[in-house]
Design a protein that fits this description.
Blueprint lengths: L3 H22 L1 E2 L2 H9 L9 E5 L8 H9 L9 E4 L2 E5 L5 H17 L3 H15 L5 H9 L14
Parallel strand pairs: 2-4
Antiparallel strand pairs: 1-2, 3-4
The chain binds zinc ion.
The site of zinc ion has 4 residues, from helix 4 and helix 6.
Amino acid sequence: MQALEKVLPVILAWSANREQEILESGEPLTPAQQQLAAESGVLNIERVRLLIVDRVSLPQDPELLQMARSVGLPLNNTAGRALGYGVEIVAGSCHEDRLLRHEFRHVHQFEANGGLAVFLKIYLRSIVEYGYADCSWEQDARRAEYGVNNEHHLRPVK
Ligand SMILES: [Zn+2]
């Protein structure tokens, strides 16, 4: 694996650029989508843009792709991705509500950690250390798929 210090700025530059593209070409959330974002704990819901794509974007640069692979980022068969306030999901994804809650949870994590640079740093370190599936932010996002992260959903089971 390449040193994270070398990989991080390159992935951050690509991610910030892709976020900007999504913010420019994506749509504001519908009321139903805003509800899902609220359930996932997103604060500035009006800033989120959603772009429906045929395939989730990948870096064109082979070296950057290799870097992303080397730190364990999942690059294929990804149904969605959140980069800052820019969320992209593949058209016709099944379980779209779950997918959106998952991606919106990453938006919440990014908000809660002071921006894309800090978020990516912690996220990538965690993936390198624990693997994609077991990193705590992916676990947190998977829990959010069912709307259980928001306090309002943590009602006692009768
Ligand atoms: Zn995720």
